[in-house]
Design a protein that fits this description.
The complex is a heterodimer of chains A (67) and B (263). With 67 residues, chain A is an all-alpha fold. Chain A has 3 helices and no strands. Chain A has a single domain, classed as F1FO ATP Synthase (Up-down Bundle). The longest helix of chain A has 28 residues, at 39-66. Chain B has one domain (2-259). With 263 residues, chain B is mainly alpha-helical. Chain B contains 8 helices and no strands. The N and C termini of chain B lie far apart (63 Å). Classes of the chains: A mainly alpha (67), B mainly alpha (263). The interface between A and B is medium-sized, with 13 and 18 residues.
């Protein structure tokens, strides 16, 4: 790929995961705010969701370098 | 700022780190196999073995600090990652999940240890191998438990859906179980380690470039680059532990999914 088109593509691609991570942690904060005892139950689920969403953003970053 | 960079005393200007910085030369000999990532992988295996053998010899009811540390790691993988996820048959899989967790964690942490400073998992072959192991494991577990015909019928043609939906769902399930799961498992680990190492390289090499530059203002601002590199090192530690946890958790979830009976 010539020029910096891959960076533009990466910038567009990372909007989705950024929104997703925000929503995941918003749900986690809401859940813990309503019921503080549920923190240890919700925390692994929050981190799992975060890692899955961040994986997509990082695929974009790696492809921006490799291509 | 760009003109300052170009007119610096370094000659060609700053060369940002790229994928070439991940190809390391062989340590001895002229082949591709005696390179630093492979040496780091062997070192990680030796260190893990020494640590856990030392922590479990002369095991006493009141644990010493080393025994407590070793037991905490093993207990974390056995309880939170295996028993709570897989259910009653979890003990069979604890060796594999424990090995996976400690191997990935140790190799990740080597990225921020001062003299080593290279994550072996940023060379994509290592995550691919681990993901292929997980793929073979969870399919073999399912086939051994349910028999091959019944297992593939269960996962590819899920019961409880109207038959017409199979035209849409089964190709998606085929791609998920045979392509997407191992691919995302490996690329998630690879991309996190690659991006983290690249970030550290940018700030450290950039800080060094700024420090060696002839303009005073570049020298004055180089501590910002180095201090951000230190902040990123701590962030990288968090990401490394998280990635080791995630790959083990997802492997356990896939195994649990293969063992599950039809609803």
């Amino acid at each position: 790929m010539t020029g910096s088109l891959n960076l533009v593509g990466f910038g567009l691609a990372v909007i989705g995961p950024a929104l997703a991570i925000g929503m995941i942690f918003a749900a986690y904060i809401n859940g813990v705010a309503r019921q503080p005892e549920s923190r240890s139950v919700l925390q692994p689920i929050a981190f799992l969701g975060f890692a899955l969403a961040e994986a997509l953003a990082l695929f974009g970053l790696v492809l921006a370098f490799v291509l | 700022m760009l003109s300052l960079v170009r007119s610096g005393a370094e000659g060609d200007g700053f060369a940002p780190p790229s994928t070439k910085d991940f190809v390391l030369p062989p340590i001895f000999g002229d082949n591709e196999y005696t390179t630093k990532p492979i040496a780091l992988v062997f070192l990680s295996i030796i260190l893990i073995s020494i640590f856990f053998i030392a922590s479990s010899r002369k095991a006493s009811v009141v644990p010493s600090k080393l025994q407590f540390a070793g037991e905490s790691v093993y207990g974390f993988v056995r309880n939170d990652l295996s028993r709570d996820v897989i259910g009653p048959e979890f003990m069979r899989f604890v060796p594999y999940l424990f090995t996976l967790f400690t191997f990935v964690l140790t190799n990740n942490i080597f990225a921020i240890v001062p003299m080593l400073q290279f994550p072996a998992m940023s060379r994509v072959g290592f995550p691919y191998a681990l993901a292929i192991l997980t793929l073979i494991t969870f399919h073999a577990v399912g086939i051994r438990k349910h028999g091959p015909y019944k297992y593939f019928k269960n996962i590819l043609f899920m019961p409880g859906i109207p038959k017409a939906a199979y035209i849409l769902i089964t190709p998606i399930e085929i791609v998920t179980f045979f392509v997407s799961r191992p691919l995302t498992l490996s690329l998630r680990l690879f991309a996190n380690m690659f991006a983290g190492h690249l970030l550290l390289l940018v700030f450290v090499l950039g800080g060094e470039y700024m420090l060696n530059d002839s303009h005073l203002i570049m020298k004055l601002f180089s501590p910002f680059a180095f201090s951000f590199a230190i902040v990123l090192t701590f962030f990288e530690f968090l990401v490394q532990c998280l990635q080791a946890y995630i790959i083990t958790l997802l492997s356990a979830l896939y195994i649990a999914g293969a063992l599950a009976d039809e609803h």
